UniProtKB/TrEMBL annotation:
Transmembrane segment boundaries: 20-38, 112-132, 169-189, 201-218, 224-247, 268-287, 354-373, 385-406, 412-431, 440-458
GO biological process: endoplasmic reticulum unfolded protein response
Annotated metabolic or biological route of this protein: Protein modification; protein glycosylation
Domain (DUF1736): residue spans on this chain: 293-365
Protein name per the record: Protein O-mannosyl-transferase TMTC4
Amino acid sequence: MAELDADLDRIIPSSVLPPFWAKLVVGFVSLVCFARSYDGDFVFDDSEAIINNKDLRAETPLGDLWHHDFWGSRLSSNTSHKSYRPLTVLTFRINYYLSGGFHPMSFHVINILLHGGISVLMVDVFSVLLGGLQYTSRGRRLNLAPRSSLLAALLFATHPVHTECVAGVVGRADLLGALFFLLSFLGYCKAFRESNKEGTHSTFWVLLSILLGAVAMLCKEQGITVLGLNAVFDILVIGKLNVLEMVQKVLHKDKSLENIGMLRNGGLLFRMTLLASGGAGVLYMRWKIMGTGPPAFTEVDNPASFADSMLVRAINYNYYYSLNAWLLLCPWWLCFDWSMGCVPLIKSAGDWRVTAPAALWLCLIGLICQALCSEDNHKRRILTLGLGFLIIPFLPASNLFFRVGFVVAERVLYLPSAGFCMLLTFGFGALSKHTKKKKLIAGVVLGILFINILRCMIRSGEWRNEEELFRSALSVCPLNAKVHYNVGKNLADKGHQTAAVRYYRQAVRLNPKYVHAMNNLGNILKERNELQEAEELLSLAVQIQPDFAAAWMNLGIVQNSLKRFEAAEQSYRTAIKHRRKYPDCYYNLGRLYADLNRHVDALNAWRNATVLKPEHSLAWNNMIILLDNTGNLAQAEAVGREALELIPNDHSLMFSLANVLGKSQKYKESEALFLKAIKAHPNAASYHGNLAVLYHRWGHLSLAKKHYEISLQLDPTASGTKENYGLLRRKLEQMQKKDV
């Protein structure tokens, strides 16, 4: 049994040490932590990655997944985020197909089960990292650290920083990446299963490990870092390389350098060559697929990376690292988004926050010194592997090799947290070894696990819907403009416009260049008829971002309402210039032309809208009504029939076409459409009123009377219906007098 396990003998009971029970406990606890999120909604980024992602739908060819990014955009596009995760998107597509649509429960359940499976795998991974790699004569791997591997796996399974990955459906990318990351590592360990003499290996398992690393990368970019962890593990555990001793021999020009000879004889250089060439090949293919180079992020996404001073960039990057370390150490202040002013830049050495990276590096240097200089080989190995698992998977998010699109992201800590849990377990073992108060340490461990489970359950509840998620961030990141924007958007979607305006204004105050907040605020002000301020906001938005097509269109709508028709037309044209396939803008342009009695231009604009979006009901309706009003009944009928073929269940189209058919004296067909529309929308007063007019013309006076009365019950203020009903009653009275 490993030395660390002996130190934990009073903390972990022997009854849970058998592999089956240990994994059962870990799996059960991991499911309990995040079970509350199983019936949650699609929240935050889920909308773009799942609901609005056409790659999930059956009509999109499967082959397109290999040419699109995570969000469904073409990788060759300059606007693409270059996040290439086709295997994750494929699982979303399978989820969508099996659940029969966008039912979030099935998506959430898969995420929870994935975390449970990963936590169970962690028992095996930690047993190798903490206890070493040793096989029986039959090729069965021995678990030399059952207590420490179980404790580390429990700490991993219950860590609250994982909530974003598990409770947010988009986090499946991190879960799948972690799953294949661990499988790649365990596969690499199997390369030494059948070794009869020290140093031999199975090339098949090494190559399979590289393949699994590539699969991990196709789920999430950081998955490829498993090859680095495999290399570190091989050097330290298989090669038994003492880094400090080797450096000392090089510095003293020791010609013996036995370790180097051992490396050559043991095949380590060959395995390192395979890992390096495999990793380089996969990264090259990844770069080629990206097409146009790295993605273009903005200053609000990662302000430190845009700082002019290299010193300012370095200080802030290190401060970000310390924030990530704090989230691992004390995961109480969690936020769905850490950008847009949430973490202000450190611009001077006098800022007290510089003490955080100093403290971080002090701890890291201490751990590195212990990992290199300790005379205890077991301690050196655990500390080095723990630091490797902590740092290597984090490197793609470190800003060291390329700019990333975030300040802090809890999701990228999913894999590095395993290294943290490993170091924490080692720390508990060291404490237990040097103190007699074993029960106190056991109580601390149980307390941490209980608090973590409780925090996971609370945080999972906050991720169940957007309102709770966004509001939970207000206390953590009150300076984050995006938090206020999202709270405002959620309120606006629920119809609470006054409250939404307050949050949108705060978002603009915190970030005066936040064009999306300006656009949404301008929209609400437009609906409240506060047109002057709406125009000022939208004009500022397009001045800040001249290619913001949605803001140009909304500005056109406001200018149209202000009777500034030429300016409105120019705004619509500019929006279409920046977004050629913009059906809503063509629709609004058509409305402008209709107001100006430019009927041909209006019809052309609405036709463009329906070509780009065949289900654009409003554009079809306006075409039918305009043709009807201008006396082009035959053309109106043709357009109506074409529209209903495309949108057969749209009651407003049925109503418009029924009106046209009634005027064309096609009473029977008109009646059928009116009745079908009324069945779909029985409380529409105009539907009953116009059907009554049809019966009135047709001579079915009793039916006309019935529907006039229903229409007036639904809308007693309808003057046209009142007038027609009065005419019908007089006619019926006259008929009764004649009969008498």
